[in-house]
Design a protein that fits this description.
The structure is a homodimer. Chain A is mostly helical. The first copy, chain A, has helices spanning 5-18, 28-35, 39-51, 75-82, 102-128, 131-143, and strands at 55-57, 64-66. The structure holds a DNA duplex.
DNA sequence: AATAGTTGTAACAATAAAAGTAACAACTAT
DNA sequence: ATAGTTGTTACTTTTATTGTTACAACTATT
C-alpha cells in the first residue's frame, strides 16, 4: 500500500550530500546516522543512485557526490532509480481472478488502463519537481 | 510500496455488481470466486464500501447492490473507502531520522510538502475517472 | 418457531515484502 | 602494509497484508 521508504531515504541522502560542507567526506555511516537506518541499507540505496548516474561514490577512499546539478535531478529520476520494480506500476492488482468469468478474465487489462493514467499523473508531477526545489524548501524550513 | 490490492478487488466487485443480470443475487461467495480470493476478505472490503455509501448490502437475505449510479462513483471514492489509512499519504517516510542533524530534523516536513503535490495529482486523476468509465472500458474489452 | 442462507466480525495463521544485521572481500590513498 | 570505506552476500527480524476458520447476528420463508 505504500511506496517504500527507500524513496524518502534516497532523497534524505541527496539533500545531505548536496548541502555538504567543504572538506567533509560523506560516508554511508554518516548518512545512516542522519537517516536513522543501517549503513548497509544506505549503501544499497546509494548503489542504485550510482547506477542511475545521480551520484558518484568513491570506492576505497569513500565519499558520495552528486553527479549532476540539483536542478537536473527530478524526483522521478530518484524514484525510478530506487523502485525499478514498481515502474511503471505502483497500484497492485489481485493475482488470481477467475478466467471463467467475464469480469475476472478482463479486469486486469481494464484496471491497467485506468491505473496508467493515475500513475502517469503522479510520475509527471515527480518529473516536475527537482532536487533543487527540495533543497530550497529545506533551507526555508531551517530558517524558520 | 504499493497500493494494496484491496483497491483492485473493490473495483472488480463493483464492476461485477454493476453488470449483474436481473434476478441474480450477488453474494460474497460469488464475488470471491470471481476475484480469486476469500469470501471473508470480500466481505471486509464490501463493508467499507457500504460505510462509504457506495453499495447497499442486504443483511440476512444477502446480495449487494450499487447505492449510486456508476457515473456518480469515482475511483477516488473507492480508494478513500478501502484505504482510509493511506489517505492522504501513500508515499512512506522513514521513521527515525536524527533530530540532531539539520537534515534529519526537517526532512519529514520537506518531503511531505513535495509528496502532497504528487499525491494530489494522483488523487485528482482518480476523481476524474468514474466507475461508469471502467464499465464502458470493460464492455469494450469483452467485445474484442 | 424452526430453518436455511447470508453477512458481520473476531481471532488467528500464513505469506510476502521490507528492512535490519553481520560479515567479509574488494578497493584506494597514504 | 595499513586503515578506512564500499560492494555484496546471506541471513534474520519485523511488519503489513492477506487468507482462514468459526460463529454470532440477521432475514425471508416455511
Amino acid at each position: 500500500m505504500r511506496i517504500n521508504i527507500k524513496f524518502s531515504v534516497a532523497l534524505h541522502c541527496l539533500v545531505f550530500i548536496a548541502e555538504k560542507q567543504e572538506h567533509i567526506k560523506i560516508t554511508s555511516a554518516i548518512l545512516a546516522e542522519s537517516a536513522g537506518c543501517n549503513p548497509a541499507v544506505i549503501r544499497r540505496i546509494l548503489n542504485t543512485l550510482q547506477s542511475a548516474g545521480i551520484i558518484t561514490t568513491l570506492r576505497g577512499v569513500g565519499g558520495n557526490y552528486l553527479a549532476k546539478e540539483p536542478n537536473a535531478i527530478s524526483l522521478y529520476d530518484v524514484y525510478a532509480a530506487v523502485e525499478p520494480e514498481n515502474l511503471p506500476h505502483f497500484i497492485g492488482i489481485h493475482a488470481n481472478p477467475s478466467e471463467h468469468c467475464p469480469v475476472g478474465a478482463n479486469i486486469e487489462n481494464v484496471l491497467l488502463s485506468a491505473y496508467d493514467e493515475i500513475e502517469k499523473a503522479a510520475f509527471d508531477k515527480m518529473k516536475s519537481i527537482s532536487l533543487q526545489q527540495i533543497i530550497e524548501k529545506h533551507c526555508a524550513t531551517i530558517e524558520k
